[in-house]
């Protein structure tokens, strides 16, 4: 059972920065009064549902929950206990906060707030917003009565009350698994068909490889013969080139001797040139000087003429020698030029020889390769392609057998899932549990209707469609009754769900909030009858009635809370 203790809030709705705290378990009955707009619904309905489920009870946008004057630091804290564990849910806006404390320790938060909320509803509260508002709150504003819910929503509420929503969750998981199983079976069939096609292709491929093997050997032998013929032709060309190259070798042997001669003649040319230069300098000296520069004596003309004659004679010898040397050099250069041409021709022949030898070597290697391939293809069993293809064929056969085995296993699992699906669907286990509790539900509903002076036979079937017999046992629908009669039915259903929840200990709670049910549709007789019901409710129930008829009802309640506005802010007076 969920025992709600208190709700605290600040800057929530019309309430200001001074924290407001409302105790929820101190009195069995509490009358909540105040003028319109003074914060009654904010304080009880919207604060609790926002704190627990992140959305208000009434149709209000989340940003509008923040106090319009302070515009920040809006928070709500809801305190409750389940068994020996104390809980507090802290939720705020500007800044955004969502925290759940268990025994004053923060429960680890998931990465997503949605997952954190799901954990609160499924693992702690054991009910969602829809179930909470059907079991805890009956309001006149945005409340949708059970009888106005769709068939699916009615089923959700009943399943939460009976604590059998786990079967729906299991059915959802089962459907996902069945869908996955169906996809796996389809995938297996596709793979099996694909494998069959591959098997046929491989078998055909092996036959074609065997036929192609002989053709391949024949082609290789032809290629080998052609290559051998090319080698013979190239060898003949190489022999011719070698013979031609031999002719130039002898002519190239004198090239080194010519180089040596050229060096000697160049050296002689240099020496004679130097001697000629010195001789010319001496001639110039005697022609330009009459006195010896060393001893300063005059040079006699006869001596001078004699010396000049000797020097001129040497000059002529040197000039003639230079001419002879240069002629020899020119002759050697001419011979070396001829030899260079021969060298070029020889080098060209050498390149051709190297190229031919390379071509012949490549052709011989190619022949060796062809011979190896012929030998390999001659033994079909050792053919790599055929061997690999046969291995693939065997592997595919094993895979095909495995796929067939897996398909049989999936079929067996599918039969089992089908049986489970029949148990978990709405007409299965849940239907049996609901059929078990339907008589109790209908009995409780009719008891509470009778206690409120509404004498009608109310009946819900397995699909939660109502049949109401009244007056002269005529059959009516819910919408056929007046607003006051509808309110009695809504109250009877709410009380019945609470009683069932108490029996099942599923959505059982101490809190019951009635929002203005006495102010609109419920007449004086109905109000009196309902007050009698309140007096016999379980001692563990804390009832809060929001009403404008405080003057008429105040003496019927143990406690009264009045909300007033002071300086644009609501507060408890």
Question: If you had to describe this structure to a student in words, what would you say it looks like?
Answer:
The chain is of the alpha/beta class and 573 residues long. The chain folds into 2 domains: 309 residues, P-loop containing nucleotide triphosphate hydrolases (Rossmann fold, 3-Layer(aba) Sandwich), CATH 3.40.50; 193 residues, Helix Hairpins (Orthogonal Bundle), CATH 1.10.287. 61% of the residues lie in helices and 14% in strands. The chain contains 12 helices and 15 strands. Strands 2-1-4-5-6-7 form a 6-stranded antiparallel sheet, with helices on one face. Strands 8-12-13-3-14-15 form a 6-stranded mixed sheet, with helices on both faces. β10 and β11 form a beta hairpin. The two termini are 31 Å apart. The mean pLDDT is 81.
Topology:
Layout: E1 2-10, E2 20-23, E3 29-34, H1 40-53, E4 74-82, E5 85-93, E6 97-102, E7 105-106, H2 113-125, H3 129-135, E8 137-139, H4 151-162, H5 165-253, H6 255-288, H7 301-378, H8 384-424, H9 429-451, E9 457-460, E10 466-470, E11 474-476, H10 483-504, E12 511-515, H11 524-536, E13 542-546, H12 550-553, E14 559-566, E15 569-572
Parallel strand pairs: 3-13, 3-14, 8-12, 12-13
Antiparallel strand pairs: 1-2, 1-4, 4-5, 5-6, 6-7, 9-10, 10-11, 14-15
Structural class: alpha/beta
Largest sheet: 6 strands, antiparallel
As laid out across the biggest beta sheet, the strand order is 2-1-4-5-6-7
Determine the CATH superfamily of the largest domain.
P-loop containing nucleotide triphosphate hydrolases
Helical fraction = 55-70%
Strand residue percentage: 5-15%
Extract low-pLDDT stretches. none
Going by CATH, the architecture of the largest domain would be: 3-Layer(aba) Sandwich
Tell me the distance between the termini: 31 Å
Summed over residues and divided by their number, the pLDDT gives a mean of 81
What is the chain-wise order of helices and strands? EEEHEEEEHHEHHHHHHEEEHEHEHEE
Q: Return the CATH class of the largest domain.
A: Alpha Beta
CATH T-level fold name of the largest domain: Rossmann fold
Count up the domains: 2
By DSSP (H or I, 4+ residues per run), the number of helices equals 12
